[in-house]
Amino acid sequence: MRVVYSPDHLAHDVVTETVMGAAIPANEVAERAERIRAALEADGGFPIEPPTEHGTDPILAVHDPGLLRFVEEAWREARTQAIARPNLTADTFPTFRMFEGMSPEAVAAIAETRSAGGRAGWWGLDTANPLLAGTYAAARAAVDVALTTADLVLGGERAAYGLCRPPGHHAARSMIGGYCFFNNAAIAAEAVVRATGQRVAILDVDFHHGNGTQQIFWRRGDVLYVSLHGDPERQFPYFLGRVNETGEGEGSGANLNIPLPAGTGDEAYLAALDRGLAAIAETPGDIVVVSLGFDTYGHDPIGDFALTTAVYHECGQRVAALGRRLVILQEGGYYRPALGANARAWLRGADGRPYEPRPAAGFGPNGSDR
Ligand code: SP5
Ligand code: ZN
Which pLDDT score, from 0 to 100, does residue 362 have? Predict the structure, then answer.
């Protein structure tokens, strides 16, 4: 299986994130992508190639031009305004409660501020989404990785994998958040729809609900969104991801959320995956975009499922058994010692190759992953 990767992600060198007011060591770090790359390189069956430049038009097909402008300008602006922080992190958000009682016209007249901190809140979802000097370049490269992966599949590959970083599925049309800046999977799905005129399904198996992807395609009947995730009753992003969110208008019925309990293990997960796959099989279309996360792993520091490395191979096999072509894009997954093995297992499954857990590739001795 061909793999698309760019070293430009290294410029988004996140050190800390803020969780409930405290700075903690960042989860979404460059080492994640390097672990996966090393494991796939060592496997020998995953030739790696660079992305091609696709420009900003495909980004503007799903995102507000103001959001693109913000991500491009924010760091420079924070520096100009002498914000003495290692990264730009929002702390004040225009929550809808702030405008309660105001008419829609009065709300519409509220303008984006020129303050860098205010702008970060205007365009942001949460406080755990640091923006740094290299964020824009890295986020642009992640989009190019996704679009190049889509190109490979449009060009006839049965499946291809894009090692996107930063991830994308929490980014909505006009909002960054959850470690995401541009919605790589949504941008790729939209590009596939435009190239083929066919319906596309997005299967999101990151631990978190992909609120951004759901929002972008909420009223679209030509893009089916199916997500398995930790129940938002207890997990980020809290305010979307429930079963009763099924889409509206032309998108009515084209959104399927499968929230799952804490402790979900291999067997329960596979049963839920089968439900999601059945919904995709009922919908016409040849291409599936997979938002692939490994924060469902048992040792993940922010997820609370209990999946094993072995089940990822089975997951990859079952998704491939749909018989559709796959644009597989990396989202989250934060237990770094197992990331390489987990990605390799999933992708070998999707590639129709046996699991063969050892020798696994990694940073450690004898190809161990530790
Ligand atoms: C792409 C992706 O996986 N984004 C995830 C963003 C999650 N951000 C919220 C993190 C909240 C961490 N809570 C820690 C609880 C540890 N027990
Ligand atoms: Zn996640």
Answer: 53
SS3 168: coil
**CB-CB contact of 299 with 339 (8 Å):** no
pTM beyond 0.90, yes or no: yes
- Report the nearest-CA residue for atom 3 of ligand 1: 332
> In sequence order, which residues have a C-beta less than 8 Å from that of residue 24 and are 6 or more positions away?
16, 17, 18
Structure tokens at 28: 């979404």
| Distance, C-alpha 134 to centroid of its chain | 19
What's the pLDDT at 82?
80
Which residue shows structure tokens 């975009």?
A: 289
Q: In Å, how far are 94, 101, 102 from 98, measured between CA atoms?
A: 7, 9, 9
Query: Residue 40's closest CA among 370, 287, 346, 365?
Result: 346
Tell me the two tokens of residue 362: 């990694």
Q: Residue 86: pLDDT band by 50, 70, 90 thresholds?
A: confident
Nearest-CA residue for ligand 1 atom 17 is 302
State how far the Cα of 232 lies from the Cα of 67, in Å rounded to an integer: 25
Residues ≥6 apart with Cβ < 8 Å to 251: 217, 218, 219, 220, 221, 223
Q: What is the pLDDT of residues 204-263, one digit of tens each?
A: 999 999 999 999 999 999 999 999 999 999 999 999 999 999 999 999 999 999 999 999
Q: Which two tokens stand for residue 279?
A: 């919904």
How much helix, strand and coil, in percent to the nearest 5, is found in the chain?
40, 15, 45
Helix (H, G, I), strand (E, B) or coil at 157: coil
Q: What angle, 0 to 180 degrees and rounded to 10, lies between the N-to-C axes of helices 266-281 and 309-320? A: 10
CA distance 153 to 285: 14
Report CA(299)–ligand 2 centroid distance (Å): 14
> Annotated catalytic, 170?
yes
Catalytic residue among 54, 63, 170, 208: 170
Instruction: Evaluate if residue 85 carries a pLDDT over 90.
Output: no
Rounded-to-integer distance, Cα 224 and Cα 210, Å: 13
Q: Which residues pair with 160 in a beta bridge?
A: 2, 327
Q: Is the CB of 128 under 6 A from ligand 1?
A: yes
